[in-house]
Amino acid sequence: MREKDLKRSRSKPSKKKAKMGILGDGAALVENLVPTGLITAASKLVEAPLGLADVATRLVESIAINSITEKTRRGRRVIIKRRNLHSQQLADLTNLYFRMADIPIRFWSKVEDWQRWEVDCFEMLNGDRYRAYASGARCVVAEKLPGESLWEHLNRGTLTRPMLVAAATEFRRAHQFWSDHFRGGWSHGDGTSQNVIYNPSSNRARLIDFEIVHEKSLVTAARQADDLLVFLLDMVGIVPSRQWLPFSTTFLEAYGDGEVIAQLRKQLDLPGGLAWIWWGVRTNFTNPGKVKQRLANLSRAIAQLKFYGEAASVRARNKRRPSISCQQIRPGMPTASSRTLAIRDRAKAVSPGIPRSLPTKT
Q1: Where are the domains of the chain?
Q2: Which helix (H) or strand (E) holds 225?
Q3: What is this structure's pTM?
Q4: 304-318: pLDDT as tens digits
Q5: Smallest Cα–Cα separation from 248: which of 237, 235, 258?
């Protein structure tokens, strides 16, 4: 799969539907989606569980808000991402679903905001060798990165531990950048293996595709843990059972940040309600029982990682309550029996200048 195909629906919709979403015609798409809405579609999941895959598939198709082409410019291969005509309405509609399902991500709905974020993130992470720039009112042009996505390797059965180490190393490097938008560490928002390009010649992974952004309300560790979770959910339903834990722990050990991984462990429970639609997308509609079992095994494995234990000890020390009594910290420092009690007694004492009772009239 080439880079221009990275954002196609995993449910493999028909060619007639690939560009404009679930209804074929862009104008009809918005006119029909807005009245019924993703809200109605999602609410029917509870009433009709058998239609879950179909509804989730429609959700994936409907948020294909870009068309992507590959061309040669000035002798270099470039990827051109163009926002479709009704992209803002589609993004706003999808963001409404995210808010109702309490999923802390969103699409950049305004084209100019998306262009700025896409270019800035690409240049920040890949600007040492590659360039990206906004083109016109609706496009972003980025030089094509060498290699293939890990999603392609995953589906082909050629994913290896060195690839996972390279991906984890790149996530850790990216997470160390400061983001003015978040006023903290940067996070991707869509850390799927489709957005990790691995170059075997340099054994280097790079991140692409910055359509989605985390909500600012999330703390840094939670945002970055979500990036790792999304990456792992790609593998949960595809890799063989014998590879799930070795691959997952290899990825987390290479990432190596105990605080973020401790946060990740808290996010391994399957959600319910509307949020399950998006988890279905993330896990490629893998059987929920299988997902739950594999994530439970991963949670137990994380607890055995050395750096996780060290991070847990630090968290425990930071949670200790301070002593409620004064303690001697250096020679000559008064103890509670002398200093604290004396201050307390003076506060209770009546001032000599104030009579103990009001004067009486004579």
Answers
A1: 3-316
A2: helix 220-236
A3: 0.73
A4: 987 666 655 555 555
A5: 235
